[in-house]
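Tip: read the tokens left to right.
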């Protein structure tokens, strides 16, 4: 399976994602943001980091980069796209995912391991997980507070487009276990066709027991299978 990782000035998780993909036997290529064409790809990953230093607004400048036009075309044609952290922010800036990521409720940068619950395992991103499985995944962001309008929120729930929710170790999703104030504890969402996933937690950081855990492995193994 062929993957492409988009690299912007300020990306700092691009190599982490590349390591995860290559470990899972993807044939990966790194694509600089000034490129005007994509290599043939089954999966496009927009990694975390601080593209363009998060000036103006997180993901705002990256969302206008040359290569993003091709990413948008690929997403609309059905290509799988994964946006992690800043990548999620960029996807909302492009309109490939609806909603926005606001400042964390405590107005501080958060870097910690949190629990998230798998809300839909009937997708190409999550099929190797069990429904309601609890994962421990790292988050590292300043703007992870997902927000959308009431109409879209109802659609997310009705069409099972919420991928993950922040929770405690037993799966409770109340405000006490919401690290950033995200609407209804939302940690990740799909588009309508479920070929695009945006998530704030970093699955690429959880692929090796030596440095963390392996709770992120099944996201990549779902895709490769």
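Filled-in amino acids:
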């Amino acid at each position: 399976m062929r993957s492409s990782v988009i690299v912007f000035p300020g990306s700092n998780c691009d190599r982490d994602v590349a390591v995860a993909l290559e470990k899972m036997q993807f044939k990966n290529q790194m694509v600089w943001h000034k490129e005007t064409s994509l290599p043939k790809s089954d999966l496009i990953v927009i990694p975390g980091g601080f593209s363009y230093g998060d000036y103006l607004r997180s993901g705002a400048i990256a969302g206008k980069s040359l290569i993003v036009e091709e990413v948008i075309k690929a997403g609309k044609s059905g290509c799988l796209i994964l946006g992690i952290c800043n990548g999620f922010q960029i996807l909302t800036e492009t309109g490939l995912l609806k909603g926005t990521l606001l400042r964390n409720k405590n107005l501080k940068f958060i870097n910690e391991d949190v629990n998230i619950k798998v809300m839909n395992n009937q997708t190409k991103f999550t099929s190797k997980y069990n429904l309601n499985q609890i994962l421990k995944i790292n988050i590292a962001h300043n703007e992870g507070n997902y927000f959308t309008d009431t109409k879209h929120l109802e659609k997310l729930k009705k069409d099972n487009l919420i991928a993950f929710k922040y929770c405690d170790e037993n799966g409770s999703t109340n405000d006490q276990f919401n690290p950033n104030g995200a609407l209804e504890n939302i940690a990740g969402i799909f588009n309508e066709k479920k070929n695009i996933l945006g998530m704030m937690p970093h699955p690429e950081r959880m692929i090796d027991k030596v440095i963390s855990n392996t709770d992120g492995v099944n996201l990549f193994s779902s895709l490769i299978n």
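The first strand starts at residue 2 and ends at 7. The mean pLDDT is 97.
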